[in-house]
Each structure stands twice: as C-alpha cells, then as structure tokens.
Amino acid sequence: MSGSAPVHVDPDTVRATLRAAGLRARHALSQNFLADPDVLDAILAEADPPPGRRVLEIGPGLGLLTGGLLAAGAQVTAVELDRGLAAFLRERFEGDDALRLIEGDALDQDLVRLVAPPYDVVANLPYHITSPILHALLGTPPRPDRLVLMVQREVAERIAAPPGRMSYLSVFVQYHARVRIALRVPAAAFEPEPAVESAVIVVVPYDADDRLDAETEDELWRLVQAGFRERRKMIHNVLSRQLPVDAGRVTAALAAANIDPDRRPQTLAVGEWLALREALAPIGPDGRGRRGAA
To answer: pTM for this structure?
Structure first.
C-alpha cells in the first residue's frame, strides 16, 4: 500500500493494525488513536496544505494524518516518541521522501527550528503535553503560520475562553494568536476511547509587528502569572499580595488602565492585561518594581 494514499479507518481496523504490528496503546503516553474517517477528513480540510507546504506533525501515531498530508503534497516532519510506532511509520512510509521522521520526545526538541519557515503544524496532540507544546510553538520565533490541533475539549474551551472564563493559558495563546474551535470530537472517534471528549482548534499567530519586545513580554507574563495565582479573588488584592508591590501603586495602575479593582483576574481580556502592564511597569524579575520605580 502506498504510504501517501489516504486511509479511512474504524476502531476494528485500528485494533487489527496495532495487533499486526505487535503494538498497543500506551496510556502513559496519552495514546488514543483516531478511528473516525469523518473527523480525519475534517482535520485535513482545516489544514488544507498546498503542494510543497512544510508541515510539522507531533505524535503521528499510526500515520493517518501523516498519510493525508502527504497525499495532499505536503512536506511533513513528524516527531514520534514511541519506538514501536516510529518503526511502524518508517515501514509504512518507506520510500516516501516527503516524510522526515524524528524519533524522540517533542518536549526535548527545538520545535520552531525543526522546519524552515514558512510552515504549519497539524497534530493530534497527546493531551498531557498540550500546554508545553503551545508554549514552545508560540513563545519563540520562527512561529508557524497556522496550527490545526486536536486537544482535550476542556483544554480547547480554556484556550478559546472569553473574558469571564480566562486562565493563564487563555491569555498566553490569545496574546499570540487568533483561536477558534473548529470541531468537537466525541470519545467514540478514538481507539481506545479516552475518558474525555476532544476538539480541533485552529490557531493563527499574529504578525511579529504586533508583539512586545522580549523584555516587556517577560514583564507581561510575570504580571499575568501573579494574577492567576488567585484567579477568583479581586485583582487589586491579588496583585498587592502576589507581585508584591505597594498597594497604592496597584490602585493607581488599575485606575490608569480603567480596570475596576474589584474585578477578578479571569474577567480581564488580553488588551486589559497589556494596559495594566504598561501602567504598572517596571516590574522586576522577582515581581517587584526595579530600584527607582515609583
């Protein structure tokens, strides 16, 4: 069978494929293999790589997404931790020069430098590494142009949350990119079925010109991290305790940013965090204003 041919599967096929290869799903690695052809087609439609497009795939598993991307003409770099799956993929896609397979832990890779820009990311992410992978891909350049990711539904909703339900992860991702939930995926779409539902998110990073410089951005994240240590408490009290800075300085900064001091951190939009950082700066590495700050 050609490795680049699109593959349509069901749970029985996934189980049979694993048995034939002497493999099994490893719970410790969050291995739940996609087994729904409609979901597979929907992900590939969202990715829609033009011929020759460079794509980074994390956790290719049995290679269903990989095969679809290759069939579309993409140049795929895939990172697979599981040694048995890596061997399976090498055999399945033998002779396909459009695939570069890296055997290793994605968390140990310099992900943004594995593929020359411009590039996209398409992945059915192991759920336990979603947050660090997003930080790695969005936190440093060269960032991908687009990410199409299968993640746990609860995490997808947290990432795309509106003010009122924000978290540190929401602020981080939405500062860097536009986010939308493209598809909700039931547990039955996987083999074995996970205990949670999933969702496909599409993340489109903003242009580099829309970002703060590195030092100022570090200051922003110190502020946001401090705020979300007590996300359900009043923002004035949280910042006075957690940064810590003089309470009067916090009061003045909130007023300058037009933020009610009784609001909770989870209600602040990204733009409000940016305004608050500007009003409160400078913030030293330990959370305190640098010497000489007002």
So the answer is: 0.90
